[in-house]
Design goal:
By secondary structure, the protein is of the alpha/beta class. The protein has helices at 2-5, 25-35, 47-50, 60-71, 87-92, 119-136, 158-172, 175-182, 218-246, 267-270, 289-302, 329-339, and strands at residues 12-14, 39-42, 75-79, 142-146, 252-253, 255-256, 277-281, 308-313.
Length: 347
């Protein structure tokens, strides 16, 4: 199926026309054609624009962009827009707000700001994915679906804690087996009731310095990391299921973040549920080629050598880095050496 949908290496990237005046959209299309772009990812962070209140959905802007792209021979990777929830949702349903490792409940803001174990998030994210599928199921520009964005950030709210206990019950069955597996007699950690188990964050098992990987209780922390990956996978499957209920043969994926080696997700557990594997990768000037090769080989191996998508990449400097090196030293030496040889001569 994938080889039929992608007969060539697609060339494009994220396109956010909703962030710019409509007057420049036509110029965007002209430049896309000149650049040879044949795919654009839309609607990744547009939940607030698409759903101004609990019962209203507006896709007029998206209709217009979809049509323009189709008229210019450009296919669409449709984002589900669930990577940042609307402000009204955070105000009305505070369970969607995340809690950090040190126990602070965040207010509305930034992105990736939803809790994977929030009933509100799961309900409305699934509903949005279904609404989009219904609206664009027959649109000729639609090629594939992109659920959420860079999924995986760990959360520590009460919903997460309750869900973690249920996850542990399924994994171990009894507290006796859990105590054995975690070796809880070390430092007096023996549990006699499931409700005694709290998340291994900065307020409990975390070591000083704020690094979530530094823990005083390795067994619990490792299971919490597994649980977090599973929680996000459940969220992904809710959205993917809503799409496939409308479009059974839809190609659905999400973009693995962290340069392809992102610890919070179990890629091998996720891979069977992705129709095609995708990643983001942001190499710096000094990133060794071996690192890139490892990450690409990992993506290729997740589905036994099947093609994968590179959804985000940096062609140059990175806007969120405090410092960007001008050139790696090796490259400067190479260029200096090259300039010493007249054109047409070889060594």
């Amino acid at each position: 199926m994938i080889s039929c949908r992608f007969p060539k290496i697609m060339f494009g990237g994220d396109y956010n026309p909703e962030q710019f005046p409509k007057e420049i959209w036509a110029e965007d299309m002209r430049l896309f054609r000149l650049a040879g772009i044949d795919i654009a990812t839309l609607n990744v962070f547009s939940w607030a624009l698409n759903q101004p209140d609990e019962n209203t959905y507006r896709f007029d802007w998206l209709d217009e962009v979809m049509n323009k792209l189709h008229e210019n021979g450009i296919r669409v990777c449709m984002g589900t827009s669930t990577a940042a929830h609307p402000a009204w949702m955070a105000k009305k349903y505070p369970d969607i707000l995340t809690v950090t490792s040190d126990g602070r409940k965040r207010k509305f803001g930034r992105r990736h700001n939803s809790c994977p174990n929030s009933p509100t998030f799961r309900k409305y994210a699934g509903r949005m994915a279904g609404k989009l599928a219904e609206r664009y199921k027959n649109h000729p520009a639609l090629l594939l679906w992109h659920v959420n964005n860079e999924i995986g950030i760990r959360r520590y709210c009460e919903n997460c804690e309750q869900a973690f206990r249920e996850w542990l019950k399924q994994r171990y069955g009894t507290l006796q087996e859990l105590n054995r597996a975690w070796y809880t007699r070390f430092w007096g950690h023996t549990f006699y009731d499931w409700d005694e188990i709290v998340l291994p964050g900065a307020l409990s098992e975390g070591m000083s310095g704020g690094n979530a990987d530094q823990t005083a209780f390795q067994g619990m922390t490792l299971d919490f990391f597994r649980f977090n990956s599973d929680s996000w996978l459940e969220c992904y499957l809710i959205e993917a299921g809503a799409i496939k209920e409308v479009i059974p043969d839809a190609v659905v994926t999400t973009n693995f973040q962290g340069n392809g080696t992102y610890k919070p997700l179990d890629y091998f557990k996720w891979a069977p549920h992705l129709d095609i594997v995708a990643l983001d990768i942001y190499p710096e000037n000094h990133t060794p080629p071996s690192y890139m090769a490892l990450r690409y080989d990992l993506m290729r191996g997740l589905k036994d050598g099947a093609p994968f998508l590179l959804m985000e990449q940096t062609p140059g400097v990175i806007n969120w880095k405090p410092v960007n090196p001008v050139k790696p030293p090796g490259l400067m030496r190479l260029r200096a050496a090259t300039r010493r040889w007249p054109a047409g001569r070889s060594r």
